[in-house]
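Can anyone check this?
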Amino acid sequence: MGNIQVLSFEVANLIAAGEVVDRPASAIKEMMENAIDAGAKHVTVEIQNGGVSLMRVTDDGCGMSAEDLPMAIRRHATSKIRSADDLDGIMTLGFRGEALAAISSVSDMRIMSKRREDETGHQLEVRGGTITGVTDFGCRDGTTVIVEHLFANVPARRKFLKRDATESMAVSANVERVALSHPEVAFRFISDGQIKLDTAGDGKLMSAVYAVFGREFASRLIPLDYEFEGIRIDGFIGRSDNVKANRNGQNFFINHRYVKSRTAQAAIEQAFTSYLPPEKYPVCIMNIGLNPGRVDVNVHPAKLEVKFSNEKPVFEAIYYAVRQALEQDTSRPSLGTETMKPAFGPTGSRYSDMTSPVETERPKPVNERQMSMNDPAPSAGTSGPERITAEEYVAMYLNGGHGHQPASGSSAQAPHTQSAPRPAEPRRETGYVLPPPQDEVPPLPDEVPPLPDEMPPLPGKKPPLPDEVPPIPDEIPPLPDEAPPIPDEVPPLPDEVPPLPDDKPAPAADAPDTPPYRIVGEVFHSYVIVEQGERMLLIDKHAAHERIIFENLRENLRKKSVDSQFMMLPVDVMLMSDEVGLIDTYRKELEAIGFSFTCLRNTVRVDALPSGIETSAIPDMFAAFAEQLAHGTGDARITRDILFEKALFQASCKAAIKAGRDYPPEQVAWVVQQLMKLPDITFCPHGRPVAMEMKKRTLDHQFERC
């Protein structure tokens, strides 16, 4: 007997289950995709104990007949494709016919389904991959899949599951991604009896984003709408103030299928160059629409990775779509008002959670032992201070403070001498300390002393004027005979004031195209307050000037024709043989940006480079070219532009005016004027906001004027 045997159907299903279903979240994803492929408009997902005890997915799709139910749990049984040619243009989310077979082999499953044309529905029961029966069942149109006791027959797999809370979060993440990829479907997610997500299903992506991420996240997004070489890019990207410390906020969908793509990640991150803070990553909800024949989705068991027939146009489409959206965005971050909330209590009355200003504290009588120097603090069981009104305190004050008499005797006593407790001085919540009560009120005098005849002069005042004013002189000294000559010609004013830090720029009133605004002032020699219509801007003058200089330099770079400079001695760049082959393949693109080189076996000999590039940067540039071209994450021109932009960062920062220093008002006014002319300048090259915005209605709300 030979050693090679054909595995049984049950064992093959268990092996496939390990590839397709590794946790409840992956099972939920497969069942949701089946519901979407069935044309559902409403999908409800319910789990218990992270999905281990119960998973239920209900949809209102086309449903299945009694004959189709047993076929649905067989391996490689599907209605999505018919032949091998269909794999070249897959538009459905599922197509392999493995999901239900894998799930049913490691759980107890029930499928209830009804077609619209049928009078009754049917129910299929499966235990550990074995069908126990198919019966008639009364249910509504659509399909409901119930999965219980996941991995009950595979204990080794079940012990690798995480805590219920962790598995529940993984399920929630998958539901959110599917909801974002199909905003035309209404999704509801219920975990342990609590509704965690409920989308509208109105076909608007912003509605799904709002339901998944909330209002604050949705308000800091920039829309995408771009097409390049038959590739459609739409969705949203986060502004520079809406970033994360990792790539978890990047959601890419290819033909409405959630995927992970290095090409898309590299494209959006390179597009955010000069718009992103250091060590931060952009967020996005981006759908990439392209011909299904140009992408292969059958390269990963979970269909999370794809392979493009040509990655270069995909990269460029994403890069230019994001770059265009960033350069055209004119929204500014809003000035936070969390610390300016009015003090309203739960009853709605003002200051209901604060102490009334007419109340003062009255100390509780304390044991003398607690006030000794050996034990100065009251015991833990002592209650807090009592409250008395101002009228009570005045009455006590006029009555000589009876009942609150201060202890007599000197305060300086021996260390072991006990003394009567001295009550704390009553104080108001406003911080003003009232005077302590006295034993007796001093009587008023019988007679008021008369006022003096003459009041002495107050200190610091000028002495009185003299009685007589000195006479005016008879003769006034004559003016000089000759005045200084007036020049024949006045030198003309320059046509345009160059925007240098040391010059005095033109005031804002000279710019007719600038929206009307008013510079209110400057605080801390760093931030300029500007009033414009119904909003207030708080401008960081250094960040604003830095971005203005950077934009001017980058514009000059774009307009300048490509000039090459030949070197006396060529530079040899050591690369791997496959990298040299890539450089030689893209020779035309590299020469178009100013390089001239010769490809050897493991070396690229560079003898000319673009003007403005340091010779020391050649090895790093060619290494970057080879790496990005190998992974389809860029082309030569985009890489050149990014490297140029990074070189301009420091130059712009050093040339800009500095925060914390006092500059002439004309210079600050020029920065504001340039910023108002360019409303798309919202962040400095390092990703910091240039200006913060606050609406007038927000201030009115904070001061209760609305």
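Reply from J.R.: I decoded it. Residues 534 and 696 are 5 Å apart (CA to CA).
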